[in-house]
Amino acid sequence: MTDPPNRTSNLLDSPSTVAEGVAFWLRALGVDTAFAMHSHHLVPLLPALWSAGIRIHAAASETGAGYMADGCARVSGRLGVAITGGGPGLAMMIPALQTALVEGVPVLALVGQNSTAGIPTFQETDSSGSRDVQILRGLTAAVAEVRHAADLPAALETTAVALAAGGPAAIAIPVDVQAQALPIPVPMPSEPFAWKWHSKHSNTPAISGDRLARPADRPLVDPLTSQETQVTYRDVVAAVAESASGARVFVDAGQARHAAHAVLDPLAVDFVDSPRSAPMGWAIAASIGAALLAGDTRPVVCVTGDGSALMLGSEFATAVRYEADVTFIICANGVWGGPYSRHRGTPSAEMGCLPAIDWLTYAASLGLPAQRIDSALDLARVLGDRRRECGPRLLVVPTPPKDDDVRAPYAAAQSPTNPQSR
User: In what order do the strands lie in the sheet with 107-113?
Assistant: First the structure.
């Protein structure tokens, strides 16, 4: 999609439809960037947003769109907007809304629904879409359903109050209602939305279980013997701190996040994570959202793992599509780190091993430049060279399966008895 028109000067115009009312309201709140997965439920809404001057980025999944809105909101101090259709589209966005709820991030989900006539019912929870609203009530601070054009002003007011209190909100609008004419004026916000994210660090409990069957039909990596060279997580994070000065740093769930707290916290180096919900793959999409923020030119570094990349590595294609300036670092150890470490020596440990993935070949299939890094010094050098380049790149760094060297100090730093714990 080409850049939207600059419609800031036209926001005093009166919107004529429900879709235009939502678009003008968002622009008045300062929104100029949104993330979406296209749907037949959104036919009137998406063009209205674009015409109002809001740049819409198409994600590879609804989950990714929600996480991109989350990352955009955290670094911009503005409202994050994620757009999806109802039914399975909304179901795919649930992880992102849950994360925004737990972390207190103002993400607005715009959910298109089936026509109020109930025909067709393709990709819908039921003919009325009401089950979408029931689902959203458990994931957001407020959900407003606009079943008639006259419902829009009250829905926007309720949503604004909820977003100001912190956390996500949602507006669900049937596709035919989006095109309805507004019978009454829509009050516009008097000032842009603003907030400030504060990290809320906490530990996550161990995962239990045993006597789990080995999947015989999938190749597994032996993490203790398959890698000739390994870089510690501490050194990966230290290289980022040393050589990526000025970049926004996102760190995914898992062992890299433990290292980030152990290494970066004492250095007072700022980074962005989701410590309470700790969703795997969040940082991949959130970092893309931050990089695509309109008017922001700071480079972005995302430290993730091969387990997280298995979940949301499809969003690498989004970074390529929009030339997002993100350096993705995959710490490749061939395991789900935490579960593998805790279950080692038990029958369930082998379930923590990952399928063998050639990340360089996968990246090449997406048009994503990639290379393997075998030492911390090489990683620091490559990150330093990246200052003179733009666009996405993937760095694959072999790392050890054990995280004892970073988990212990991280856990100690997060102890309730530690006065420095934050």
Answer: 55-58, 33-36, 80-85, 107-113, 169-174, 142-145
CA distances from 156 to 95, 142, 192, 328, 422 (A): 24, 11, 14, 37, 35
Helix (H, G, I), strand (E, B) or coil at 60: coil
Q: Which helix (H) or strand (E) holds 132?
A: helix 130-137
- pTM, to two decimals: 0.87
Compute φ and ψ for 107, nearest 5 degrees. -115, 125
299-325 pLDDT, tens digit each: 899 999 999 999 999 999 999 999 999
d(CA 65, CA 58): 8
328 neighbors 316 (Cβ within 8 angstroms): yes
Phi, psi torsion values for 167, nearest 5 degrees: 100, 175
Residue where the block lists tokens 């999938």: 218
pLDDT in tens, 151-173: 999 999 999 999 999 899 999 99
Coil, helix or strand at residue 170: strand
What is the Cα–Cα distance from 171 to 156, expressed in whole angstroms? 8
